[in-house]
Amino acid sequence: MSTEDIPESEALFGHLTKVLLKIVKDRPQDSFATFESLSAAVKQDVPSEQEAVDKTTSEEIAALITQQVAAHQQALDLIKEPKKPKGGDDEEEEEEEEEEKENVPIPDILAQQSMLNSIGVNLGTEEGYKLCLSMQKLANKNELSECRFWGKIFGTQKDYYIAEAKLEEYPEEDEAEAGKELLGTGANEYIYFVTNSLQSQEWTKLPTILPYQIKVARQVRRFLTGDLKASVLGFPRFPYGEAVYLRAQIARISHSTSIIPEGVFTIDPEDEEAVPEANEEYKAKHTLVMDNPKNWVHARQALLKIGRCTQSAIEEEEEEDEGDKPPKSEEELEKPPKRLTSISSDTHQEQLSCWSLQVTPHPMDQFASVCVSSNLWPGARTVLLGAQTVSCYVGWGHKYRESLYFPPPPPALETEYQSPFELKESEMDTLAEQEDAQPPPEWVPPSTEEPLAESEGDDDDDGLEVPPAGDEEGGEEE
User: Fold this and answer.
1) What is the distance between the alpha carbons of residues 244 and 240, in angstroms, rounded to a whole number?
2) DSSP string of 343-369, one letter each residue
3) Helix (H) and strand (E) counts for the chain?
4) Partners of 265 in the β-ladder
5) For 359-398, how does the pLDDT look when each residue is reduced to its tens digit (9 = 90+)?
6) How far is CA 328 from CA 293, 311, 333, 471, in A?
7) What whole-number distance in Å separates Cα of residue 22 and Cα of residue 121?
């Protein structure tokens, strides 16, 4: 852009700013009298557009061009199909084409983005198209049975695009690993892939989550950086890294904000372990009716305080006496809520309403949609248009707090050191620091007035009375 294309007001404002900056730096004696000369000097010092281009070295230009070409090539790779192996015969190539798997069915992301745009969640047309292509390649590469766009979590350096998926077959796992829920159940019902760039096509699978990790994540409040290998600083210490912290936040958000209209799924009320099933007789309700929170239910189980969706499924076969069993804590006694509970019963100690419902653009419009926003997790929204429901999260991954956040205090200091000699023999710590040994209480220190003669006997004669040297037979030798 040349100086002729810049508006006169902006050019004048920029020039005056540079003149005043020169006056502040040089501090001339009479700046008012020399203002015109200073203004002319500033005009002469301004480099032209051609001079600025000449200062750029050829290496910098080449590096910039290479970077732009690589970015465009990554965008083209999303559109291109993978190269097929070359075969010897045409018949073999036809058989290979028939055996190739079709694309894994994924939701229409562009249509979902259009629904989210109506409630203010706009990722952009170009970003939505790249997201659709990148997720299709992700589903085909990992042979996923289900795959949808979960949302986007902001970071201080890079953002996370998150995909939620299910596998066709889950590998076998050890049930006794720190109380972890198996893949496909509870907090590990879904697996999650993340990426910082939709053009890179590199999606990283997040690890499965443990109950203890969720418990610690509830006490931590940190911004994500965008680097999965980064450490999570603060207190209490989160020693698992940002990848696990991100996975814990996703689990907390998913199990709190995943909602569906009432009647989409059915469940046997008498069977506590029953799994919800799709209701084939479901009919979409009118928009005016869906503006009521009583017509919305939770789609997933709630996370208990223990960090699981259910209590431990490991039961002891041998019955033990009640006196031998350790008392259960409050977390272990917590009962999971029933499935498909209404969101109207959600309460929180810091605010009365957990959900906000809004109809856009107008309740009587034939294309009106219902937006349900979570007040506990700002950024989690669900939109209903006709019979189609789309949920998405776009935010910083933090729970709402009415008051300012204060990290929990560190543990109390240890009590003052107590000498092991003050303890009883049963309470004696063999590794504790010990004091020097003391002489017997009946021992009396020798007098310093007269020197004592050396004892000819054993060293065990300490403490016995020793006569002076002059009283010995024969006296002292002259």
Assistant:
1) 6
2) GGG---SS-S-SEEEEEES-TTSTT-E
3) 10, 12
4) 278
5) 988 878 888 899 999 999 999 999 999 889 999 999 999 9
6) 36, 12, 7, 82
7) 46
DSSP β-ladder status, 355-360 and 369-374: antiparallel
pLDDT digits (tens, 9 = 90+) for 237-249: 898 999 999 999 9
User: 359 is written with which tokens?
Assistant: 């109809």
Rg (CA), the chain: 38
Tokens coding 393: 């999260």
- Tallying the residues shown for the chain, one arrives at 478
Residue 245, amino acid: Y
Q: Based on the number of CB atoms within 10 Å of its own CB, is 463 exposed (0-12), middle (13-18) or buried (19 or more)?
A: exposed
The 3-state DSSP class for residue 82 equals coil
Element (H, E) at 130: helix 125-142
Q: What is the b/e burial string over 61-80, where b = at least 16 CB atoms within 10 angstroms of the residue's CB?
A: eeeeeeeeeeeeeeeeebee
**How many angstroms separate the Cα of 473 from the Cα of each of 142, 453, 454, 477?**
107, 14, 16, 11
- Return the number of other C-beta atoms located less than 10 Å from residue 476's C-beta: 7
pLDDT tens, residue by residue, 173-216? 765 566 888 888 889 999 999 999 888 778 999 999 999 999 99
Residue 432: per-residue pLDDT? 55
Q: What is the pTM of this model?
A: 0.69
